[in-house]
Write a structure and sequence with these properties.
single chain; mainly alpha
């Protein structure tokens, strides 16, 4: 009964966003006191924020967790710390550094023999090899992730493992396999009550159906992604869904509908931390207006340029923060 309660609490941590994410320093005493590996896995995960919000802050939490794991010999903390650092370096576009951390996570996870940790490590490695366009290796790690995920309760990595395999097959042009794994990801998300990735799942299903020349079905999935984004109050996913719909209308020769959707995509993220996501719809509007409304084309071209400049500046700031983080991590290790 105690293990069931711990499992229920753990699963909740994977899909219920707290009002204020706790720092790892706040969570560390609870992690250190927790003797159950499963409960510690979910407790540590709850302190690791998403890369999309603040990857530098996420890296700080991951490093604190990693150092704790190394000093205490706790492989749960080590694997999650290493895998999270690898994930965040990927957000910075540093594939080599990301792969370095993820391979270390793999070594510790395999040594532990814990299928939760192994599925976590294999998931991030599959993403690395997807970025490198090494699809056979990415698929191999994706399948190994699912083999280990089958040995424990359904959690986020069970769902994301299938979603990632679907993304790999989609990138590789193997649409039947892409559809099979993405649908499986959806089924697990619904049956487990973990809706964390539903927005991404709907968008991916929409892109697959668009590739399969089923525009009506693709639109239905993009509409579901839009609804999901609104339900959870995510400007990011509202933007992604509207942009996908705008591209779908463009391909169908419906420029007026495409313009409406592209403008809605821009409106969703203006004044939010995701403001640079105006780039894709702004570029689309520039092309749509190029022949009919030169002034509007110029307006959205300038918006694209401003977002591009802003993104460059953000990356420059993040790189500075990253160097600071690495020096602090080095000092902490010493």
């Amino acid at each position: 009964m105690k293990n069931l309660a711990l499992l229920t609490l753990g699963l909740a941590m994977l899909h219920v966003a707290p009002v204020r994410a706790q720092s790892m320093e706040e969570l560390l005493p609870r992690i250190a006191a927790e003797k159950n590996d499963s409960a510690r896995f979910y407790l540590a995960f709850s302190g690791l924020t998403t890369s999309e919000t603040n990857p530098v802050d996420d890296m700080h939490n991951a490093d604190v967790l990693l150092v704790h794991g190394q000093m205490s010999g706790d492989k749960v903390s080590q694997v999650q710390g290493l895998a999270c650092l690898g994930y965040d370096y990927r957000a910075f576009g540093s594939t080599a550094k990301s792969l370095e951390y993820d391979l270390k996570a793999k070594a510790v996870a395999e040594e532990s023999g814990d299928p939760r940790l192994i599925s976590c490590a294999y998931t991030v490695l599959a993403a690395n090899y997807l970025d490198l366009h090494e699809y056979p290796t990415a698929i191999e790690y994706g399948r190994k992730c699912l083999e280990n995920a089958a040995k424990h309760e359904v959690n986020l990595f069970s769902i994301v493992g299938n979603l990632l395999l679907g993304e790999i097959y989609l990138a590789d042009g193997k649409l039947d396999s892409a559809l099979t794994y993405t649908q499986k990801s959806y089924e697990l998300s619904m049956s487990s009550g973990i809706p964390y990735s539903l927005g991404e799942i709907y968008v991916q299903l929409g892109h697959i159906q668009a590739k399969l020349k089923n525009p009506a079905l693709a639109r239905s999935y993009f509409d579901l992604a839009l609804e999901t984004g609104r339900q959870i109050g995510s400007p990011k996913f509202i933007n992604i869904a509207h942009t996908a719909l705008a591209e779908l209308h463009t391909d169908a020769g419906q420029p007026d509908s495409a313009i409406v959707c592209a403008k809605q995509a821009i409106a969703a993220v203006q004044g939010t931390p995701f403001a640079t996501m105006v780039m894709k719809p702004a570029q689309l509007l520039t092309e749509l207006y190029r022949k009919s409304a030169v002034d509007s084309a110029f307006k959205y071209s300038e918006m694209y340029k401003a977002a591009d400049d802003s993104l460059y500046n953000i990356k420059a700031i993040q790189q500075t923060q990253l160097m600071t983080f690495e020096e602090e991590a080095r000092q902490q290790e010493l």
